[in-house]
Known about the structure:
The complex is a heterodimer.
Chain A: E1 3-5, E2 10-14, E3 19-21, E4 24-26, E5 32-39, E6 46-52, E7 59-61, E8 64-69, E9 74-79, E10 88-96, E11 104-105, E12 109-114
Parallel strand pairs in A: 2-12
Antiparallel strand pairs in A: 1-4, 3-9, 5-6, 5-10, 7-8, 8-9, 10-11, 10-12
Chain B: E1 4-6, E2 10-13, E3 19-25, E4 31-38, E5 42-49, E6 56-57, E7 65-70, E8 73-78, E9 87-94, E10 104-105, E11 109-113
Parallel strand pairs in B: 2-11
Antiparallel strand pairs in B: 1-3, 3-8, 4-5, 4-9, 5-6, 7-8, 9-10, 9-11
Amino acid sequence: AQKVTQAQTEISVVEKEDVTLDCVYETRDTTYYLFWYKQPPSGELVFLIRRNSFDEQNEISGRYSWNFQKSTSSFNFTITASQVVDSAVYFCALSASNTGNQFYFGTGTSLTVIP
Amino acid sequence: DVKVTQSSRYLVKRTGEKVFLECVQDMDHENMFWYRQDPGLGLRLIYFSYDVKMKEKGDIPEGYSVSREKKERFSLILESASTNQTSMYLCASSDQGAKGYIQYFGAGTRLSVL
Lengths: 115, 114
């Protein structure tokens, strides 16, 4: 079975602080993909990153960085120097090879950045 | 840019009504999906489709049906709306081919059933 856990329901930080959003996944497949999406108040989920199971390199994109560790089944997301525009709900998702294109989403983490 | 358009942002319906939620994508994607989003539960898959006239049940198909007569359009149907179907509904599309392709989402339809 596939499962994604985002234990942090809500996080509040003050602007310019760094914040890490946790994502832990479960799968028995050796080939899978992990994703992060951002859902701002407007409602539309915006794709941020995709990582496949064979690539454990960390990735940095501007103020965003992702840490993928297969040993702990985690795919954590860090925002450096947070801004008010980062306030949103963030979802982690898993897609495994034996379930085709089906995604399994975590329950989301609501991030509020206080000015 | 990929564009997934949901026909309504907000809908208010009465119990027992038949409800149609429409979704159109403009990127010639083979796969389309319907999710519902509820607080504390994340996104749950209702139905998906790999091709025209094909459909597959997701995790929570009860009380819903779908229609895909054209590649770009995927409709979610509530045959007889009930109050427990009050929710945010999200449509998504993705390419066929290599598994793990990115899903692109519409802005969502917030449905209230009174």
